[in-house]
Amino acid sequence: MKRFLVTTFFSYLSVSILAQTLPQTLTVKGIVIDSLTNKPLGYVTVALQDPKTQQSIKGTLSKQDGSFELKSSTGKTYQLTFVSVGYKSKVLDIGGSDANVSVDKVLLSPSSNQLKEVAVTGVRPLMKQEIDRISYDVQADPDSKGLSVLDMIRKVPLLSVDGNNNILFKGSGNYKILINGKESALMVRNPSDILNAMPATNIEKIEVITTPPAKYDAEGLTGIINIITKRNVGQGYTLALNTRFNTVFGPGGNLSGTFKQGKFGASFIVGGGSNGNTTTGFGNTENIFASQTAILQTGTTNQIGTLHYGSTELSYEIDTLNLLTASINLFGTNQTQNIFQNSKTDSLGIAQQAFDLRSTGYNNFLGLDASVNYQLGFKKSKDELLTFSYKYSNAPTSLFANNIFSERFSYPLLLFPDYNQYNNSGNKDHTIQIDYAAPLTKTISIEAGAKAILRDNFSNYNVNDRDTVTQQYATNNTLTNDFNYHQDIYSLYNSYDLKMDKWAAKAGLRLERTEINADFISAGVITTPSYSNLIPSLSIQRNFEKSSFDFGFTQRIQRPGIVQLNPFIDRSNPNFVVTGNPALRPELDNTFDLIFSNFSKAALNIDLSYAFSNNSIQNVSSLKVQSVNNKTDTVTYTTFQNLGSNKTLGLNANTNMAITKQFTLGLNGQVNYIWLSGTFNGGSYHNEGLTGTAFGNMRYKFGKGFALTFNAGYFSGQVNLQGKSNDYIFNQYLFSRDFFNRKMTIVLVANDPYAKYFNSRSYINAAQFYQTSFNQNYYRSLAVRFNFKIGKLKGDIKKNEHGIENNDIKNSSKTPIVNQ
Known about the structure:
Blueprint: H1 2-19, E1 26-34, E2 45-49, E3 56-61, E4 67-72, E5 76-83, E6 90-96, E7 100-108, E8 118-120, E9 127-129, E10 133-137, H2 149-153, E11 159-161, E12 167-169, E13 176-179, H3 191-197, E14 203-209, E15 224-229, E16 236-246, E17 250-261, E18 264-288, E19 293-319, E20 322-347, E21 350-378, E22 381-409, E23 419-439, E24 444-466, E25 473-499, E26 503-520, E27 531-543, E28 547-558, H4 562-565, E29 576-578, E30 587-599, E31 603-613, E32 617-628, E33 631-642, E34 645-658, E35 663-680, E36 683-701, E37 706-715, E38 723-725, E39 728-739, E40 744-751, E41 757-765, E42 769-778, E43 781-792
Parallel strand pairs: 1-7, 13-15, 29-33
Antiparallel strand pairs: 1-4, 2-3, 2-5, 5-6, 8-9, 9-10, 10-14, 11-12, 14-15, 16-17, 16-43, 17-18, 18-19, 18-42, 19-20, 20-21, 21-22, 22-23, 23-24, 24-25, 25-26, 26-27, 27-28, 28-30, 30-31, 31-34, 32-33, 34-35, 35-36, 36-37, 37-39, 38-41, 39-40, 40-43, 41-42
């Protein structure tokens, strides 16, 4: 922590010293006045913009007496822009060869419409508080050219990233990620993979939906993260090339583009890269109380992999009232693994068992989804829309591991042979949806719709043991199964939206019926019965001149996904077995949010939340004694269960401020207190504790397109029913240079330069045993990023207002990926 504070201090000191040497030649001064009251206006955003690109060159806020001052280089023409909440924006043309420009009094007229949604900071605000969500404008953040989307998420209110690069929403992993308002194959399995590889320049904004309205599926306990990709299309085209090279993960890049000609529009992203050739360590230590047995494991994991992804959206405007759109998304990974581990077991200091195990195999994933939407408009109102949608998704995973033992001690080959295991799993979805939206009055609008998701979760797995005589592999029938889990969800929703000058409200109900039918080759597997849920949602917003209060309440469902349901028994580590639970029931969560947003000199957003659930899905471990040919062996068995209550009280604060005209500072922090309790394996468990995250970023803009950024963060670790995980510190340095009127950017990135590795540790304190585990992750990496774009266009690609968003299953990604 001392290292973090010292680094922060010297980074601030260095940019402050450099600030004294930068030349400033053009000075623009003036005073902003309210046209009605004739009084000075403070905290008005004033910015110099390039009239061609509309990019901000310099920006500031007017003082309390209305005065302002901006400096830039002479010899250019600028637009001087004035923006303030509750007032009409004003733009003045200035520049030329003058060294000093005075615009005297600038009169701003009050806007006739008060806030429907409130913007924060700058000519293009970084944040926007709406009635049920917070939006972070990625394109308004100058660092977007040098960061990945995963890096950018650290800056977004209510979101954080832990030491294993798992994304957290209010400190929880129970949320749903959408791409452009729709569930995507890109996010089905390991969203950290794709978001770490994708440059932030491909993203328009990130929405944090704290109180999802009734039109969204009821899944995602904490809320929904909606990532909006860039789709700016008018007549013309643009192309953008983004590449990177990372010292740990190697090369990667993508090509994105937009096109519009007449009634047809299209946008696309296609990319890929290496996941590197990495070797890291891991270990497990377990003490079993009853037998005074100790298990010690150490090992290494070598991984070589690649990833690829693509996304395209198409739009055809049949006429002013009829619109046809379609989208296709694809994401795949190919990963080979070579794992070596040494395992030793002793009791009272006497060796009981030992072996070495080498496991080689692969883990491949391919996700695909395609959708088509038809939107019908009505002449009497442009806001009355009827939309028909269909979507197909397929997300299969193929896993294989060949396990060979050596150096056996009291681990006989006849009882514990070499073996290999296969698991082909995934889900296929067909979704049909109809949506209707219309205004009822000038202040009230209605949304209603129906939806059917026909989902087939599947897992075909088998284990083959090697015969000690013939050396041939034969199927182990006790560990082989064909699992098909059909989950059909039928839903109806209705919501109402009220918008007035100072008040806004949104309320709705969603009725969902979940039909479940499971098929197995083997008997004895139990599944949960079908069930129905009526889900309410309520959001209320009160707007003031420069601030707002928002209150939200909703119930959410946590349906288990294929990872939690899959009864496949993963024995790649024979002492620590992992499996799913087909009998899991959905978790029902109640969430309350109170959000305060202030938009004066420094943007400030504060969220106070409370959530509770009485049948929480928890990851739990216990000891099981297995018997093979009258020889017993004790293993740790990890699975998922519906256990007791989960209560969380949380506070999040986010601010962005301009310390000087060149130096900006952003802070994003969160603290949660968690209470967990439940009964498992005959014992009662209770755990509680404080968790939190803190992220800060400082950016200094030099002349001639140079900029220096320092990002730092702290993650306290998580509290689980049976234990906790350790804390983590994150540091990142970026040095960027713009060329050719900002059409090309080169960024140098240093991630966590202080150490090569970081050890992620977790602890389990169960009634029968105590266990500690660590996984070594790459910490230090250097990267070069290159961005280049060509073309010119204006406007947006035409898209339907409603569509399919399958946000109804549990996000279960826990794959550690390091910053790239």
